[in-house]
Design a protein that fits this description.
The complex is a heterodimer of chains A (259) and B (88).
Chain A: E1 2-7, E2 10-15, H1 19-28, E3 41-44, H2 51-69, E4 73-82, E5 85-90, H3 97-106, E6 110-113, E7 116-119, E8 133-135, H4 137-142, E9 165-167, E10 182-191, E11 198-201, H5 204-213, H6 222-235, E12 239-243, H7 246-258
Parallel strand pairs in A: 2-3, 5-10, 10-12
Antiparallel strand pairs in A: 1-2, 4-5, 4-6, 4-7, 8-9, 11-12
Helix pairs in contact in A: 3-7, 5-6
Chain B: E1 12-17, E2 20-25, E3 30-33, H1 36-44, H2 51-62, H3 66-82
Antiparallel strand pairs in B: 1-2, 2-3
Helix pairs in contact in B: 2-3
Classes of the chains: A alpha/beta (259), B alpha+beta (88).
Chain lengths: 259, 88
């Protein structure tokens, strides 16, 4: 069984002896399904200690490869959208991007990515990168997300333990953001234990700096990345989202996008 | 003018957002984001003024004594020179 994917312009041909893994990959990467091109990268899905580990390794490999090869301004960020307008949260790993994105989907917003804001070098619009959402067991419990048993051979999952779970928007009762998108809001995350959720204006230059600092691809076109980060930050009012619980924070983001 | 500060090299691109200037040097591929005060110093470092004139203009703008800000201005200009955004 072979699964073909196209992620941010890179074509992959996935091959595995374990059809269950490929079937799950096909479900998780459904929006990226495409016939492999002649120059597709072939990835043989290995056998780790478990099918779940093989899946996790593969998702990480596909993501890293696609972002490294992406011919666009790609920034480490969570992104959600509503009626053609996107909000991006540039932040490093562990800052709570995926959980906040998932909470935003629970609040009714559309999915764009829990990993990267992707903008063409020309600056026209946002390229969706709806990779599978990676949520911790804690986040799944907090957001009341049922944990699917992804693979038939997986043991039943204890929601209190284990690594990240991969979900699609439908698992959260949500859908991908529809139609062309433009970046309307850059939101800087300020997660503090016990903090009440609040959304305050931030400096545009700070937002530009955050976009540059979190970029995966600035080194390919450094001057254009510098210019584009400032164009994007200057196009709207950036915000600083202080929060602890992602649910009220998501309500603020939702109000910003829908209000 | 003797001891004039600046002007920046042609390879330096400056963008401004809400009064704060960001610099990018295509030669070194380095970027630098300046705060408001450093942005004011950058604007005056155009090759037409020396350090004393820049300090005097900033002191007048901020309503403070030249002796209060001189060291900070010197340090900022030194940093801009060391980073390659202003000529030595």
């Amino acid at each position: 069984m072979i699964v073909g994917l196209s992620l941010l312009g890179t074509s992959f041909r996935l091959a595995a002896r374990d059809d269950a893994v490929l079937t799950e990959l096909g479900r998780l990467f459904g929006p990226f399904a495409a016939e492999p091109t002649v120059d597709a990268l072939t990835v043989h899905v290995g056998h780790g200690a478990s099918a779940a580990e093989a899946l996790a390794d593969l998702v990480a490999h596909l993501n890293a490869t696609a972002l490294d090869r992406a011919d666009c301004f790609a920034v480490h960020a969570g992104v959600v959208g509503h009626e053609g307008v996107a909000a991006a949260f540039p932040a490093p790993s562990g800052a709570g991007k995926s959980t906040l994105v998932a909470a935003c989907l629970r609040a009714g917003l559309g999915y764009v990515s829990d990993e990267a804001l992707c903008v063409p070098w020309a600056g026209d619009g946002v390229l969706p990168y709806p990779r599978p959402l990676a949520l911790s067991p804690w986040a799944c419990r907090l957001l009341d997300v049922a944990l699917p048993r992804a693979l038939p051979q997986d043991p039943p999952r204890d929601p209190a333990v284990g690594g990240e779970r991969y979900l699609v928007p439908a698992d959260l009762g949500a859908a991908p953001a529809a139609g062309p998108l433009r970046l309307g809001h850059v939101i800087l995350l300020d997660r503090r234990p016990g903090a009440a959720a609040s959304l305050r204006p931030a400096r545009r230059q700070e937002a530009a700096g955050a976009l540059l600092a979190r970029s995966f691809t600035h080194y390919t076109h450094p001057q254009r990345a510098f210019e584009l980060a400032h164009e994007l930050a200057g196009a709207g009012q950036p915000w600083r989202l202080t929060f602890d619980d992602p649910r009220p924070a998501a309500a603020l983001v939702s109000a910003l996008l829908t209000g | 003018m003797p001891d004039s500060i600046g002007p920046p090299a042609a390879s330096v691109r400056a963008l401004e957002l809400d009064g704060e200037i960001s610099l990018y040097d295509a030669a070194s591929q380095h970027a630098l984001l300046l705060n408001g005060t450093a942005s004011d110093i950058w604007r005056l470092a155009d090759g037409q003024r020396n350090l004393a004139q820049i300090v005097a203009m900033l002191a007048a703008t901020y309503g403070t004594a030249e002796t209060v800000i001189r060291a900070d201005v010197e340090r900022t200009i030194a940093e801009l020179v060391a980073a390659g955004f202003l000529p030595a």
